[in-house]
Amino acid sequence: MPLNPFNWILGLFSLDISIDLGTANTLVNVRGKGIVINEPSWVAIEKKSRRPLAIGNAAKEMVGRTPSNVLTIRPLRDGVISEFDVTQAMLEYFIGKAHEQSVVPLPRPRVIVGVPCGATEVEKRAVYDAALSAGAREAFLVEEPLAAAMGAGLAIRDTRGCMLMDIGGGTTEMAIFSNGNVVASHSIRVAGDEMDENIIAYLREKYNLLVGNAMAEQAKISAGAAFPLREERVTRVRGRNLITGLPEEVEISSIEMREALAPSVKVIAQALREILDQAPPELLSDLLDSGLALTGGGSLLRGLPDRLSDEFHVRVWLADDPLTCVVRGAAAILENLETDRQFLASLERPRGTR
């Protein structure tokens, strides 16, 4: 479908914005300026009025430190909107902050947002509506694994197949591409957040130590592993002893962390096995050459490429700057919307509209 000429003219002057609206972090790319925002997807709200008090970095710093009348929440769960009004306020804040990059008044921006490939029509519509309500002139959606593949530089238009796995905070998404199309895709709601929950459960069971999500995430970053390391690591975690009720610090190794993270890693590996089972034999042959590209923050878990390569006998490699692949790929699609419109996620019209 051709672009509206009026919108095309406005597009020459507006600061088009690409957004990776993640469960854990939100990244915003402005055309011609690159990534200008990379902040946590946290919002602090007044409990009674639900009025936003802080967003992004400022809100995350308040987690666990607020009075009883203030809540700190992440308005997205498993990569999709769970709190529409709060997400709208967060998007409005980030879009407005991105628009401040210009010193002269400009038209409202076109906005493209990444969504999980397993998102329902209702979930996609919520993201679309939130972007428009937050000030976008036009809103577009793109499935995250496809955007990540573009950002990682995969040759998705080639006849020979290629494959990508994007591990975010709330979802792990994987897709096989060939001839510019998604041949097979799979999305599971097990990713970085679930890994943190694994660590919390492990410390509670083994050490009677209660820790929060922030401490679990810090331990994962410091010593988390999915495969034996050449040099095992050690980190310290702090929490409350469930028996004495007193603060306590314990030392845990990457060997223990590997045991703690095993449930999530096993689920991710099983999902990869399922999508490979869907692929035609010819594409499986291509994947032996091209391998599996990993993107997203969860892909930085130590030893994960080795763990998957050892089990599936394919080359597994980490994309350059894996945390920004989705937003960079979405920006590339928006930049070439006339030719890349085929990559946009479809959105059914609401009933009663023409």
Descriptive overview:
The chain is of the alpha+beta class. It has 3 domains: 5-147 and 325-343, Nucleotidyltransferase, domain 5; 157-190 and 262-321, ATPase, nucleotide binding domain (Nucleotidyltransferase, domain 5), CATH 3.30.420.40; 192-260, Alpha-Beta Complex (Actin, Chain A, domain 4), CATH 3.90.640.10. Helices cover 38% and strands 26% of the residues. The strands form 5 sheets. Strands 3-2-1-9-10 form a 5-stranded mixed beta sheet, sandwiched between helices. Strands 13-12-11-17-18 form a 5-stranded mixed beta sheet, sandwiched between helices. A 3-stranded antiparallel beta sheet has the order 5-4-6. A hairpin with a 5-residue loop joins strand 15 (234-241) and strand 16 (247-253). The protein is flat and about 65 Å long.
The low-confidence runs, each spanning 5 or more residues with pLDDT under 50, are none
CATH fold description of the largest domain: Nucleotidyltransferase, domain 5
Task: Report the CATH architecture of the largest domain.
Answer: 2-Layer Sandwich
The CATH C-level class name of the largest domain: Alpha Beta
**What Rg do the Cα atoms give?**
21 Å
